[in-house]
Amino acid sequence: MKKIVIIIVALIAFKGASQDINTYFSKADDFFKATVANGRIAYSKIHKDPSQLNELLSLASKISVAPSDAKTYQAFWINAYNLSVIKGIIDNYPIKSPLDKAGFFDKTTYDLAGKSITLNDIENKLLRAKFNDARFHFVLVCGAIGCPPIINGAYLPSTLENQLEIQTKKALNGNFLKVNSKKKRVEGSEILKWYKEDFVQNGTEIDFINKYRTEKIPNNYKLTYFSYNWNLNKQ
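User: That's the sequence. What structure does it adopt?
Assistant: Structure tokens below.
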């Protein structure tokens, strides 16, 4: 009898947790749809009424996710990172750049999935350290124009693989690269320099770029980097 009760309790808890994570993804999707356009965020609108954002982060604080359920885990933390960046900016608004707030990435903590955690720890300890996937760099949005454009919706477990592919292709066929054919040179976002180890695991940086580029970069081109634009990615 005790075993039956334990099983029933476990099933109820599992169902509750499943409902929470589904609600989180649904509410995150609604929030991004309402506040993001053309890769830019309506910070002034959110600042006037942050209730939707605060409710969403409160929900995220109580959710439990495990790396063994990789797509759910990754989608949760990608959204949580992007939401927390927005929260950090709103808490210091008006602000011209996330760098205007000391410790924005490595000191300020957020209560997420039962952890008190910084943005850098989400990126480096919970995602990069656990999964060998350089495409994270094209979906984690740090609040600046130099970041990849934020999408008008949430990352979802069922669509995450396709979303990672799309955003990586957009970045590497878009403003993450400046190609100069005459000088046989390509300038890349400093993200490619800061996280070089992630991009050279199976070849050179240009090999990684060409995996996603429509117009391939010749291997004899010199790769340099242009300065990162830290101005706020606001609408």
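Residues 2-172 form one domain.
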